[in-house]
Amino acid sequence: MAESASAENVNVMIRRMAIDSMEDIDRVIRELESVRDMLRNEGARVSREVSSYASLNHATATAMKVIAESLNQWKERPLQNKEAASDPR
Q1: CA-to-CA dists, residue 3 to 6, 8, 12, 16, 50, angstroms
Q2: Where does 1-89 have alpha helices with state H?
Q3: How far is C-alpha 36 from the chain's CA centre?
Q4: Rounded to an integer, what distance in angstroms lies between the CA atom of residue 16 and that of residue 8?
Q5: Cα angle at 43 between 41 and 47, to 5 degrees?
Q6: Residue 52: pLDDT above 90?
Q7: What is the spatial distance between Cα 10 and Cα 20, in angstroms, rounded to a whole number?
Q8: CA 52 → CA 10, 40, 55, 66, distances in Å?
Q9: Global confidence as pTM
Q10: How does residue 9 score in pLDDT terms, banded at 50, 70 and 90?
Q11: How many other β-carbons are positioned within 10 Å of the β-carbon of residue 73?
């Protein structure tokens, strides 16, 4: 009988340890899934930010090109006016 009770106690202890270990594993899995979801969301956010900055960069480059062309035309106009004024035709 003592042997049977002792074996039963060992079985109970093993079951408790197994249950505790399984609960710890389940907790870690839930934490990892939470981190995975957070990383996916952050990846999507960063992707949107990069896309937004790329669009802004393109718009800025286009605006700078227009400004540069306008400045070149503005610089050439006084020269053309001076040349026309000094042309004795």
Answers
A1: 5, 9, 14, 20, 69
A2: 2-86
A3: 14
A4: 12
A5: 115
A6: yes
A7: 15
A8: 63, 18, 5, 21
A9: 0.57
A10: confident
A11: 10
